[in-house]
Amino acid sequence: MDDEKKYIAKYIEQHCILYPETHFFDKLPGTRYKAQYYLARALYNTEIMEKIVDIFYEIINENVGSFDFQITGRQWSSIPLLTAIPLLLRHKYNININSFMIKRERKTYGIHNYIEGIPNELPVMIVDDICNSTDSFGFCHQVLLSENLTTFPYFFAVLNKYKKDIVPKALEEDRYLRKGYKPLTILNGDDINVSR
Predict the structure, then answer these.
(1) CATH tag for 51-191 (out of 1.10.600.10, 3.40.50.150, 3.40.50.2020, 3.40.50.1000)
(2) DSSP H helices in 113-173
């Protein structure tokens, strides 16, 4: 598994971190990114995605011990994970896991839904490409509560942008997630070489 992690890290370093000549504007007014992560470039690579799912399988076995949950994530970044994880777990490991997507906004017409797909009765694990803020996790958490779905005490991200054993402060605050969630990640900031 270590070789697979290194392979994914190298791919992210080479293809998923952009260093613009004029720095991108950051989310906070007046601030700019020095580097920006675009993990979608990795998640749409089938070889990388297969390695991610293999490591996800190992992480769940080691930390959770069963696959008695379903997965969700916010539109758009989680879609490759929500598709590949159930497909490859079924194909490679004979494990059936349900997935559904949470829209960024409730539909204003039709069935007025936040959720695309059909949740079942199992608790829901939130998944995403990167943990650099918990906005996606917090948003999904609130939607799950509003839809009377049970949340799972773990969430999964391919990359925690922060250094090992450092959990973003927001994860400790109830404004995003209730206390007790445990992040499960493949890589953290120590695994990625940001060169600038």
Answers:
(1) 3.40.50.2020
(2) 135-146
